[in-house]
Automatic annotation (TrEMBL):
It comes from Lophiotrema nucula. The keyword Hydrolase applies. One of its GO terms (molecular function) is serine-type exopeptidase activity. This is Serine carboxypeptidase S28-domain-containing protein. The keyword Transferase does not apply. Keywords: Carboxypeptidase, Glycoprotein, Hydrolase, Protease, Signal. Belongs to the peptidase S28 family. Pfam families: Peptidase_S28 (PF05577). Gene3D superfamilies: alpha/beta hydrolase (3.40.50.1820). GO terms for biological process: proteolysis. Transmembrane segments: none annotated.
Amino acid sequence: MGAWDRKLALMADMGLLPDGTPMDNPSIETDLKLAKIASDQPPPNETITPEYVELPLDNFAKDGDYSQEGTFFNRFWVSQSAYKPGAPVFLYDVGEANAEGNALFRLQNETSFFKQLVDKYNGLGIVWEHRYYGNSTPGPIDLNTPPEVFKWLNTEQSLADVDRFAKQFKRKNISYDLTPSGTPWVFVGGSYPAMRAAFMREKYPDTILASYASSAPTEARVDMSVYFEPVWRGMNHYGWGNCTADIHAAVQYIDKTAEKPSGAAALKKQFLGLGAEKNSNAVFADALTTIFNYWQSYGVEGGSAGLRSFCDFIGTDPATNKTSPKSGWAAVKGAKFTVDRWAAWPIFPTIVNSYLDTNCSGKADVQGDCNLDLRFSDPASISWTWQYCTQWGYFQSSNLGSHQLVSKYNSLSHQKDICHRQFPTAKAPLFPEWPNTERTNRIFGGWDIRPSQVYWSGGEFDPWRTLSPLSSESYLGAPMPKAFTTPPKCGEEQDDDDIFGFVLKDAEHCFDFRTTGVLSPDGGTSRGYFTAALDKWLKCFKPKKGGYGHPHARS
């Protein structure tokens, strides 16, 4: 994800909008008003400030000298207003973003699912910032940061950070042993943090008692063209088959026209204005793909820049004000009609400028500084690009074929070029030519991972479910286990054929982390499956030292 995606996800986390979940409300402006309403609450009864723990950059130093490579300070936030002795510690992992924007919301806002969970069990809540994000960095992260600085940015080290932190965690005014030796720890995360939730149970089962993994794409994969398949299926399911047909026809027309330099130049100026013709077909394809940026957070919604707005625009004939038939306008009027409507969508240049951090004029007679080939300058985008380019892949290239929604010029080769564009001086083995996904899957288990005491969830039309253990993409070799919702016994691992989890109908990314506003009908159901299991698993916790009173959930 780029910087713009993270801004959308962060907005979705705040107020009435949860962690990266889709928003069905037709207006982002309305969404922001709803978030403000949710934030206009009585002052919290607890003042929470950021805290830091010093951790080694290399958690796995062979000689045991963890300070040899240096240390950094990892940021976290703690709420203990609901805590009663013996209750669990809940850790909410923010993942690949600056955690400051939503830490207090997670811990103090009554609409926060995480706060509700902590309060239900009289627990202690922690919001954790991932190494190399926000203020948890060994130094400044910017375009001038040498590649060598990122040597210690990987998922293995970041998991070890949580383990090391948990084993030394304490509070001045709580005498109870809060480490995993005396208190059960529960890890909660969505998306990449959901992967980490599962990996912590797999790698550090004595540290994390239970995990909630929502929308966790645990299978590392270079080719993630499958990302757009749930978009195609979801749009058709929601009644936008005319729009997918038109996008498909338009993209194929654009691809064919762009094969000739003169045709490519004309298209770029038509869509983005004078100056855009200097860009390659590949980065122009990046610009075209931005119409789908809202899908994982909002589905077809998202206000004036969402797919509903886009589809309404290209599906309307301005000459007659008639809407397209089910087959779309391209089938009736030809693909060029749809291409022209797409290019005329007033907000399109604004979306491209915001996402690609450029300044295209959007007018064929106005020169713009329209460079679509810029490196990401946002610190979080820089760090995440390092992670996916070295370990995870997730190259969202064109889904060629009958469901194609993205230009063929958005190829795997182009996605690889983005990695090397971002880190032009980085060399192998520190920075591989292609993401080392085979090694990553050997380390973490991919979508075959089945640690005990983990609850998995995913949205029916979530693009990231395609690489999760709940994936339904059999043609990719997904294990296709049968999901069940009866809480398994403590320590009971599932085999390849089944999994403790749930797929939410009519949902996208992390849909079950929403508690108010526009809801998924399955959101509360999914959360209930986890808490039912947690009730069972907490009873199995046995402290290694000191006494322990089993926590009781508040009804």
